[in-house]
Write a structure and sequence with these properties.
- The complex is a heterodimer of chains A (about 110) and B (about 110).
- Chain A is an all-beta fold and about 110 residues long.
- Chain A has strands at about 5, 10-15, 20-25, 30-35, 45-50, 55, 65-70, 75-80, 90-95, 105, 110-114.
- In chain A, strands 2, 4, 5, 6, 9, 10 and 11 form a seven-stranded mixed sheet that branches.
- With about 110 residues, chain B is mostly beta strands.
- At the A-B interface, strand 4, strand 5 and strand 10 of A face strand 5 and strand 10 of B.
Amino acid sequence: NAGVMQNPRHLVRRRGQEARLRCSPMKGHSHVYWYRQLPEEGLKFMVYLQKENIIDESGMPKERFSAEFPKEGPSILRIQQVVRGDSAAYFCASSPQRQQNEQFFGPGTRLTVL
Amino acid sequence: GQNIDQPTEMTATEGAIVQINCTYQTSGFNGLFWYQQHAGEAPTFLSYNVLDGLEEKGRFSSFLSRSKGYSYLLLKELQMKDSASYLCAVRWGMGAGNNRKLIWGLGTSLAVNP
């Protein structure tokens, strides 16, 4: 059973470009969470999604950031017009529908904005 | 707010025992997690507590006191590979969205010396 997959693992963008981060949850998992981790800081919750639904986006910046989890395909975290402050590690985690405990993390995407 | 406090750094000796503490705001508490994160890697699940008491899993144990808003992670027979950051995360709320979101402490960086 493959774990949570994220791609790309490393992404370099110039200021003003768009960044698209993908997350494929573990097989059988229907809940996806996105977290951001800045250097020397803790994990910050961004958004919680189920298939075709955003359940909690209280941690998402109001502008430039969006997330989706379509019926088919991976979950996408999209950052428009990136700025240097967006440079961070972005982790995706997933959990099964009936299990409300452990979240399984992907390896993360490290975004660098030049 | 939903503050979670844990020490920033700890140092211990190989073969010894170390206890990492975590305190949190008690209102609406709905479970506490400990994760391990090696530098540059994703967090991996260690333990989950929702009721008072001690949960033991091999060399690692986790304790919870809900009335005190306090937990600790106990690591026995320390090994060099235990050098990592240990993250305390709390779940608050019972609603459809809140019962999934985790709020994270900044992590405790543990250095195990020979």
